Amino acid sequence: MSEILTLKNINQYFYQGSNKVDVLKDLSLSISKSSKIAIIGSSGSGKSSLLNIASLLQSPRVGDIFIMGKNAAKLKDIEKSLLRKKNIGYIHQQNSLLMEFSAFENIYLTLLLNDFNSSYAKERAYELLEIVDMKDRAMHKPSALSGGEQQRVAIVRAISNSPEIIIADEPTGNLDKKNSDNVIDELLNISSINNTSLLLATHDLTIAKKMDKVYILNDGSLFEYEE
Predict the structure, then answer these.
(1) Cβ neighbours of residue 148 under 8 Å, at least 6 residues apart?
(2) Are 103 and 154 in contact (CB under 8 A)?
(3) Are strands 62-67 and 70-71 parallel, antiparallel or unpaired?
(4) Nearest to 27 by CA among 5, 42, 12, 44
(5) With the C-alpha atoms ordered 23, 26, 32, 33, is the resulting torsion angle positive or negative?
(6) Given this model, what pLDDT does residue 193 score?
(7) Which residues pair with 214 in a beta bridge?
(8) C-alpha span between 8 and 155 (Å, rounded)
């Protein structure tokens, strides 16, 4: 299968005064089309740093990131932004919905920003909300939605322009078990329908085991999880 995302020899660190703190050490990872990968690790293990680097939101100190075969390290910032906008859907733990806009508008505006015309954007937004059983809540603002409902909107917003990969950072971290299970099932279902790859960070092993493969991030390195 073709590789959607490849990380090669990624090193990330920062300094606390004169002390160097290593976050990621010579880390490598490849994700093929349609594959579902989970990263587990304790708080502070570097999961968010890894996902931010994979999504081109952060640059590593050392190493290469290939998205659809393109080496992001060789691209200008504007080229990175375009590559990210076209190929990556990002889901945050806090969902980052625009609070002043309705569920429909959050998706509709995202599609307009991705250069789709108004007629298609409107149709697609309602179609996506229907997929996650949220069409009847389309005109509600996030403050009027439950945490689970907000995350369902965030999920379909992330896949609205059919990205090659969804990157999700603890997408159920603020939800109870029932809502967590529902949100993950929705995410897996939608990514399967769209043949979208999925890279998900979680502290919940039960959620992680729903993916094709699970890695543990420990001491800056990835290890394949074995029971």
Answers:
(1) 175, 178, 179, 182, 183
(2) no
(3) antiparallel
(4) 12
(5) positive
(6) 86
(7) 38
(8) 28
Residue 67 one-letter amino acid: I
**3-class DSSP assignment, residue 144:** helix
Rounded to whole angstroms, how far apart are CA atoms 108 and 137? Answer: 14
Find where tokens 């100190």 sit.
61
pLDDT of residue 74: 85
* HSE toward the beta carbon, residue 97, CA cutoff 13 A: 30
Q: In what order do the strands lie in the sheet with 62-67?
A: 19-32, 3-16, 62-67, 70-71
Specify the amino acid at residue 26: D
CATH number, domain of 85, equals 3.40.50.300
Domains contained in the chain, number: 1
Write out residues in the chain with pLDDT < 50, as ranges. Answer: 1
Domain, as residue range, for 139? 3-224
Residues 183 and 152 sit within 8 Å (Cβ to Cβ): yes
What token pair was written down for 84? 């990210």
183-194 burial string, b = 16+ CB within 10 Å, else e?
A: bbebbbebbeee
pTM (2 d.p.): 0.90
Q: Give CB contacts under 8 A, 24+ apart, made by 7-10.
A: 7/50, 7/53, 7/54, 7/63, 7/64, 7/65, 7/66, 8/63, 8/64, 8/65, 8/66, 9/62, 9/63, 9/64, 10/50, 10/53, 10/60, 10/62, 10/63, 10/65
